[in-house]
Write a structure and sequence with these properties.
Elements: H1 3-8, H2 10-20, H3 25-40, E1 47-51, H4 57-64, E2 68-73, H5 76-89, E3 95-99, E4 112-117, H6 127-137, E5 138-147, H7 169-178, E6 181-189, H8 194-198, H9 202-216, H10 219-224, E7 227-234
Parallel strand pairs: 1-2, 1-4, 2-3, 4-5
Antiparallel strand pairs: 5-7, 6-7
Helix pairs in contact: 4-5
Length: 235
């Protein structure tokens, strides 16, 4: 099963977190969440839109910290997982999950303080259109991630169920310019790809992570990083 059909299947939604964020994947989950919080800062009383929210990992995390947040996704099965997660966390009053198309966001201009999209742009068929919509509904900030073309991810990228678009840094800058966004900050991480960490126990992942960050901290290592987080501001 490929593409949108794969992503929207009930069994994929039910197993999504367990397959990606158990074992060494827990390390990925912690690092991604920290990247979001570092970029946004205090979220209490901020209005946030998360594009392609999936099972609500980031949506619920921000709601727990006081954000008023909308999680939007194309998959009703993923949204159901997010609603259950929000209810369990007791943040139903801070979060709304809705099905929608990120290329035609059902919100007026300048509606949210911050718009977040994690694990999205590598799947986006028309990235300029999506970025333009994110910039349109944001008053201040757009935060997103990409998987990078000059990285270890190329070794297995074609084997993924939904495929994946890998970005060069010049391409990201062009994408931002086209949407009238200005890059405020960027982080580049994970020389070892996500798929590697998911295959090993959590305790072992910590050992490899120390090696990973040591390599990534070098001038060559930063260029080899497989993941980038981009913090942009509305001009």
């Amino acid at each position: 099963m490929k593409g949108k059909e794969w992503y929207q299947a009930d069994d994929v939604a039910e197993e999504y977190d367990a397959k990606r964020f158990s074992r060494g994947g827990r390390l990925i989950d912690r690092r991604e969440k920290q990247a979001v919080l570092d970029a946004i800062g205090p979220v209490e009383d901020r209005s946030v839109l998360e594009i392609a929210c999936g099972t609500g990992r980031f949506t619920v995390m921000m709601a727990e910290r006081g954000a008023d947040i909308v999680g939007l996704d194309i998959s009703e099965a993923m949204l159901a997982q997010g609603r259950a997660k929000a209810h369990k966390a007791g943040v139903d009053d801070h979060v709304e999950f809705m099905r929608g198309d990120a290329a035609r966001l059902p919100f007026p201009d300048d509606h949210f303080d911050t718009v977040v999209a994690m694990r999205f742009f590598h799947l986006a068929p028309t990235p300029r259109k999506f970025m333009a919509e994110m910039a349109r509904v944001s008053k201040e900030q757009v935060f997103f991630d990409t998987f990078n073309d000059f990285s270890t991810r190329v070794l297995y990228n074609r084997l993924l169920p939904m495929g994946s678009h890998l970005y060069g840094r010049d391409e990201v800058h062009d994408l931002l310019d086209s949407a009238g966004l200005e890059l405020a900050d960027a982080e580049h991480d994970f020389v070892l790809p996500y798929g590697f960490y998911r295959k090993i126990p959590d305790a072992m992942a910590g050992q490899f992570r120390r090696l990973d960050t040591a390599i990534g901290g070098s001038s060559l290592g930063e260029k080899l990083c497989s993941v980038s987080w981009w913090n942009a501001r509305v001009e």
